[in-house]
Amino acid sequence: MSRPIKQIHLAAHFPGVNNTTVWSDPAAGSHIEFGSFVHFARTAERGKFDFLFLAEGLRLREQNGLIHDLDVVGRPDTFTVLAALAAVTDRLGLAGTINSTFNEPYEVARQFASLDHLSGGRAAWNVVTSWDAFTGENFRRGGFLPEDQRYARARTFLRTAWALFDSWRGDEIVADGETGVFLRDPHPGRFTHRDAHFDIAGQFNVPRSPQGRPVIFQAGDSDEGREFAASGADAIFSRHGALEAGQAFYADVKRRLARYGRARDQLLILPAATFVLGDTDAEAAEIAHEVRLQQVSGGTAIQFLEQLWNRDLSDHDPDGPLPAVDPDPGEHTVARGRASVRMFGDRLATANQWRQLAEAKNLSTRELIIEVTGRQTFVGSPATVASAINDLVQADASDGFILVPHVTPGGLDGFVDTVVPLLQERGVFRTEYEGVTLRDHLGLAPLVPAVSGTSDAPGASAAGPGSAARAVS
Questions:
Q1: Which residues are noted in the entry as FMN-binding (predicted)?
Q2: CATH dotted code for 9-158+199-278+377-467
Q3: Residues of the chain falling short of pLDDT 50
Q4: Cα–Cα distance for residue pair 272/344, rounded to 1 Å
Q5: Which residues are CB-contacts of 266 (< 8 A; sequence separation ≥ 6)?
Q6: Is position 151 annotated in a ligand binding site?
Q7: Distance, CA of 449 to CA of 156 (rounded, Å)
Q8: 384-436: pLDDT as tens digits
Q9: Where in the chain is the domain with CATH 3.20.20.30?
Q10: Mind listing the pLDDT tens digit for each residue in 67-79?
């Protein structure tokens, strides 16, 4: 018996930093003018995408004590942009990253409930924690929370937010910080939450929104992040876009769902993906090569190198070999505000791997950085790209993709005009929106407010508050 053909989920990420964008392209526009966001969002909606996604940047990045000028474009406030986009779109989901380390539950719950009302049920929250004290310097809390306490704060932050969302039901919901048990008493719409991180009580002032709560996204790849996604998130952003790595990640996360009483279709796996299109595969490959050269200039290559070497390498020749000196294994002091510095693990081991690769392929420093930071997931003609996307989804390497174009705001246009129709012809992607809320687009069941004295875990109407366990970074 053959299995049903899976429907593909597509979303679009408006990039907020120069990790992917090509500034020198004549088509490149502003990353802060509202017109850019409008064009991007309307293109995604014209393509019947599930949602638009905005990341978050709470501080400008620095390298060697200077603003990382190759990477900075400015970061307008997420809620402001999404609320404005709600007025110029009708069906497109609106997803934003909001930090649980520096914000407060009442404020965030009120903002998301308002966004869900303004958009008619299209709001989504990508829950993250902040990992560095450098970013924390912009806030009263600074860097005082070590990692385990950030996760503890995030867990209770989520439980508190659910209590607030669900409190507009004519009952008071009381969250006990010791037991996680939610109690009720007959005071309409009131809430109380007391634990090591929060001591709040009051009355939520936004009625229950069309979705009840925002759709919950998660973007971590650690074991703790995967467990959080399985416990209650509706979708998980993944960096595993290739077949084998994607299948391994997909199988690992999906198998965790059963322990929380959840079915496989209650959590979507959505890797980020870039793309380069051409009239032919050969033309697309040529364009892709030029794009990578523009994405990684000599200066950018040196800054990437410094993030691993943890040294000032401003005098190093990007067109020469890798440095003979080894990385500094001490505390990272060169690049600040970049999550990528956490990904290297053993710096010396990674440097040796890079040296072996450079020697085997006779690569200069810049060529090596282009090789190890490759971002182009799909390269080819529209037909080739459509087939590649469908093959990965049908092979359970993902449930769809979050597309990140290298030019904004118009970089999504070609994909919508040429690739989407081919997917629609295959019968694997919608030709029209069938619902009005983001939960509808994602194929998720409506949330039903708890009636038995517990508050649901995010995305799982049958789960208790303790299962909304882990936040992500």
A1: 97, 151, 222
A2: 3.20.20.30
A3: 170-172, 181-187, 337-342, 450-473
A4: 20
A5: 234, 257, 444, 445, 459, 460
A6: yes
A7: 19
A8: 999 999 999 999 999 999 999 999 899 999 999 999 999 999 999 999 999 99
A9: 9-158+199-278+377-467
A10: 665 555 567 889 9
